[in-house]
Amino acid sequence: MTAYKAILFDLDNTLLDYDTSERESMQRTIRDHGLTDREGLTWELFWTSFAPINWTYWSERMERKLHISDVLDYSFRDTLVQLGFDGALSKALAKTYWELFCSSCLLMDGAEELLPGLHGSYELGIISNGIGEAQRRRLAIGGISHYFPHLFISDEVGVGKPHRLIFDKAVDALDAERSEILFVGDSLTDDYAGARAAGIDFCYYNPHRKPAREGIAPHYIIHELTELNGIMKREEEPQ
Length: 239
Fold this sequence. Notes:
This protein is an alpha/beta fold and about 240 residues long. It has two domains: about 5-15 and about 105-235, HAD superfamily/HAD-like (Rossmann fold, 3-Layer(aba) Sandwich); about 20-100, DNA polymerase, domain 1 (Orthogonal Bundle). About 50% of the residues lie in helices and about 10% in strands. It has ten helices and six strands; from the N terminus they run βαααααβαβααβαββα. Helix 6 links the parallel strand 2 and strand 3. Helix 1 (about 20-30) crosses helix 4 and helix 8 (about 165-175) packs across helix 9 (about 190-200). The longest helix has 22 residues, at about 45-65. The termini are close together. The model has no long low-confidence stretch (mean pLDDT about 95). This is Noncanonical pyrimidine nucleotidase, YjjG family. One of its GO terms (molecular function) is 5'-nucleotidase activity.
């Protein structure tokens, strides 16, 4: 077994708590703009409408060449209209939300303890389906950007996971063979499939202990980020 020389990470919901940042930023946005004061509009009602609309625009953004400001503007507009309100507030909502979200960095449990120990012993990098401005700002605000000299973000590369190209670009930037690279992520759809296509080992971060579908076989499964230390230590031991 070849010892690993490099570790690539997914970012959202692997190192950074995307779900909480998104929810808190969205709740503050609609509160600051007075939407929660409108009769009959609760957070649950707003989010139930917004989430599927936003996912549709987000999924289509590359094909339709939509800027993130357009994705948010259209998502807020359509949500307000669907709920029976004037959609004219959408641009202001989009601007407020984006600034709040880009300024939010909540580390996943164990990330703060894990990264200093890996830094200097392994080349570290990130492969993320996201927006460069947000991902870079959040890493800097969280005080962990210096750990990652290699950042590959879908809107900057032009393709996202699980497309092999974004993985190949990351591999080419590392001073390591494919057999010496481990990718850590929380998605079997984007992360596992992409790593497998690129021929690099995959560690499935599964904090909620979700059952894997039949035929899915990550090299490793961890439920806490700090378990990665044990994997790296075992791989360094003589076989």
